[in-house]
Each structure stands twice: as C-alpha cells, then as structure tokens.
C-alpha cells in the first residue's frame, strides 16, 4: 500500500512556539484515521499541513507523493486531490448560494458561482453526494440559512465532489445535538466502510463521535504525538488519559461505539 500522507519530524513554529512539534505520521491508502486531542493541541494546524495550505517550519510533509516545498511540487495541482471540510471553510462560502451550488462549485475549485454553466454529469454527482448525506430536500436552500448539522453535511458533500484521494474532516460533529451527531456518525460510518471512499482523517474531541469503520487513531497533546496506530491497540484508557491530561476510562460497546468518562473522586 502506498503512502497517502507521510510526515517526518514536522514542526510548525509560530512566534517561537511549536504548534506542531516533531510529528511523524504516515497514512496509507484506505486507512481511516481519527485525530484526538484537547483544544489547542494543534489538530487543525496539522490538518492544514496535510491539506497543503500550511508548510512545515521543519521536517518534510509528503502528500499523495508530492513533497511540500520541493521544486516540482505544485500545490495548485495537489489541492483538488484533497477534500477538506472544516469550520474555516464554511465562512468562505457565499451564504446566498444554494446548497446544490455550494457543492457544485467545488468541482471548479472556487467558492463562488462565477461560471453558470455546469456539466450535467457534475450536477448528477453533486446530487448523489448530497443524497448520501441526507440533504435531498434542501438542494435549493440558501447555504447561509442552514442549521449547523445541515451545513456540516453540505461541506462533506462538497469535499467529496472533486473525488479526492484524501478526505480531511475537522470536527464534523462539533455543535450538533444528539440526533444530529448520531445521524452524522451513521453516515460517516458508511463512508468509512466503503472501500471506494478516499483515505480519511477526522479530527474530534469526543470518542463518542468515532464511527465504526475508522481504523487508526492519532493522539496529540501540545503539538506532540502521544500515540499513533491501529485504533484497537492505541485507543486505551492510558493513552487517552495522557492525551487529555486527566484519568479517563475508555470503553467500546458491542455496537463498536466508543465512550469515555473520568473516574469518580474518592
Ligand atoms: N497563526 C497562528 N499563530 C500563532 N498561534 C497560532 C496560530 N494558529 C493557531 N495558533 C495556536 O496554536 C495552537 C494550536 O491551534 P490549533 O491547531 O487550532 O489547535 P486545535 O485544532 O487542536 O484546537 C493554539 O494554541 C492556537 O491558539
Ligand atoms: Mg481545531
């Protein structure tokens, strides 16, 4: 299996502080990674490197075979091969565009509908992704009027539109109510279990948001890797406690869903 992502000793330093600190991490084709870590751990910064929008201060980042900063690596050719859905993206998209347009514009690598003529085949693809994410009844709604959950599902459909080889999701379930979260977890579970779906990395703070089908976990704390590897081996109470800095117990139930809680005071 070839490397989709290969980070070697990557640091991102800002104002003398390492936001990402000597991270080595490799994602192979077909793997589905969860990235866990407390607020400010550097998860979004790491995804910004993985999506080629941020270059490492030190170390090397190779994405889909292209090493950032090397002659011959053109990030503008690389970016359409990576699907990214995060909070920052939502703010850049025009609020008055419809849901269908919001997804369609991804095919043309722009955030506004400058080009009014879309290929029929693109529209069919956009409709299919939106259908898969349960957005069928909202195709003509303005993006700016969507609920949090609807917006997140639209962004994931949008990220899939370029047929990416790597899909990066930054806290896709943050801010959703219980029903919204469970609906999204089910959909992400289907995506994660689909052998034709791209390799994935999803950032979250909550193990409850990990869908069955995710295969690996990366835990980071203060920019450093705490644990990385197969989820069954590495998502342990011990690693999670180190990652979040307090004693935690993590469990997995018969439905392959995770939960975590602190220990009662004695
Ligand atoms: N451009 C920047 N300059 C300085 N500090 C930053 C910058 N971007 C993020 N940070 C800081 O880096 C740390 C990691 O941020 P981030 O990657 O967003 O964490 P996470 O996504 O894990 O919550 C935070 O303390 C944040 O305040
Ligand atoms: Mg973040």
TrEMBL record:
Keywords: ATP-binding, Nucleotide-binding, Transport. InterPro entries: AAA+_ATPase, ABC_transporter-like_ATP-bd, ABC_transpr_CbiO/EcfA_su, P-loop_NTPase. It holds the Pfam family ABC_tran. PROSITE patterns: ABC_TRANSPORTER_2. Residues 5-247 form the ABC transporter domain. The keyword ATP-binding applies. One of its GO terms (molecular function) is ATP binding. The keyword Nucleotide-binding applies. PANTHER family: SKFA PEPTIDE EXPORT ATP-BINDING PROTEIN SKFE. This is ABC transporter ATP-binding protein.
